[in-house]
């Protein structure tokens, strides 16, 4: 008979510690009492779903007031409505649970409880910018969770700088994939063109999306940027220090948002914006500022579908030897041949390979 080294009596059969612990009757009894008092921690159970308030997707909202979620700073939030900007607070646990499922830009329906706007639900989202937010703590219940940066967006302005911090094409590639996934039109805005020339952007020559260089100090390029933003909901995303808040100040023509200089020691941006915020450029144009990020994880894009998010690959894939070619190790791959011949930029293919291997 095999004996388990963890069974310190030396008499029991081979049973791992996890099984020993949870087959213990007293432990199971304590667990049952805790679940009866506090509820199950297993988010996959029907019991938990029944107790967790869910977002109500409203199609007929005549009975409620309507607005746009303009700010979230838990448990406080703001709603932009016909009556102006309304400040609310999630008072109950049910309200806080619903607030956790919302994102800036959501079209919310609410009713007033005194002066407090109580959110009843949202209308269906037509687009969203989604990333994966990972928790490095091994004790986290979430581990990696879906994080909606903004909802109901028309244009995602991917803000990057030509210098301080330097241009990061792989981060731009990730944002382009997020835009395709969330049904959002991308726009690449390169700031600080008064400090240096534009970087080499030939890698994007086969992708049709606007690329505009601007200077927040001299206002150069702002007139070219404005037509792409007018009458649209726009979210500004990018690394810390690239000038997102400065760009919004330039567009609004007032110092509304705080800004900070790039660290001279590290050459990296410093976090100034800590929460997303919504601003009206005019009655029909919305600008959403977001906190800068250092890393960007993709949400719910499996490796077999990743190739579809690189549009310059598509016209070559029909000549691949295999229909399910990943363009990585297969023989007679037309995409790899196109890369070798210079018809697909090496930088874009390298970015694809890095994403594929990471997933």
In short:
By secondary structure, this protein is an alpha/beta fold. It contains eleven helices and 13 strands. It has a six-stranded mixed sheet with strand order 10-9-8-11-13-12, sandwiched between helices. It has a five-stranded antiparallel sheet with strand order 3-2-1-4-5. It has a two-stranded antiparallel sheet with strand order 6-7.
What is the secondary structure topology, with strand pairs?
Layout: H1 17-22, H2 25-38, H3 46-51, E1 65-73, E2 76-81, E3 84-89, H4 93-100, E4 107-113, E5 116-122, E6 128-134, E7 144-151, E8 155-161, H5 169-182, E9 185-191, E10 211-213, H6 222-229, E11 233-237, H7 244-252, E12 277-282, E13 285-289, H8 303-306, H9 314-317, H10 334-340, H11 346-358
Parallel strand pairs: 8-9, 8-11, 9-10, 11-13
Antiparallel strand pairs: 1-2, 1-4, 2-3, 4-5, 6-7, 12-13
């Amino acid at each position: 008979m095999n004996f388990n080294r963890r069974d310190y009596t030396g008499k029991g059969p081979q049973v791992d510690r996890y099984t020993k612990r949870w087959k213990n009757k007293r432990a199971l009894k304590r667990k049952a009492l805790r679940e009866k008092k506090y509820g199950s921690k297993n988010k996959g159970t029907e019991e938990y779903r029944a107790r967790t308030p869910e977002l109500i997707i409203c199609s007929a909202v005549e009975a409620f007031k309507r607005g746009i979620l303009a700010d979230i700073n838990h448990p406080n939030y703001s709603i932009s409505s016909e009556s102006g900007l309304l400040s609310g607070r999630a008072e109950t646990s049910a309200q806080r649970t619903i607030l956790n499922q919302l994102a800036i830009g959501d079209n919310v329906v609410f009713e007033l409880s005194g002066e407090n706007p109580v959110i009843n639900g949202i209308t269906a989202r037509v687009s969203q910018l989604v990333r994966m937010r990972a928790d490095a703590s091994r004790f986290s219940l979430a581990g990696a969770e879906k994080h909606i940066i903004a909802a109901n967006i028309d244009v995602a302005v991917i803000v990057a700088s030509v210098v301080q911090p330097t241009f990061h094409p792989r981060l731009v590639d990730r944002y382009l994939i997020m835009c395709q996934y969330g049904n959002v039109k991308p726009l690449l805005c390169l700031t600080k063109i008064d400090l240096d020339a534009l970087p080499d952007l030939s890698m994007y020559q086969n992708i049709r999306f606007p690329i505009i260089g601007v200077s927040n100090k001299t206002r150069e390029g702002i007139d070219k940027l404005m037509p792409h933003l007018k009458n649209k909901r726009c979210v500004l995303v990018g690394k810390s220090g690239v000038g997102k808040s400065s760009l919004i100040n330039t567009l609004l023509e007032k110092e509304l948002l705080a800004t900070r200089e790039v660290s001279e020691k590290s050459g990296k941006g410093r976090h100034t914006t800590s929460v997303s915020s919504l601003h009206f450029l005019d009655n029909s144009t919305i600008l959403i500022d977001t906190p800068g990020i250092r890393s960007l994880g993709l949400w719910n894009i499996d490796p077999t579908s990743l190739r579809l998010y690189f549009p310059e690959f598509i016209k070559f894939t029909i000549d691949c030897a295999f229909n399910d070619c990943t363009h990585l190790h297969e023989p007679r791959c037309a995409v790899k041949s196109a890369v070798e011949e210079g018809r697909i930029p090496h930088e874009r293919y390298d970015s694809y390979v890095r994403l594929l291997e990471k997933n």
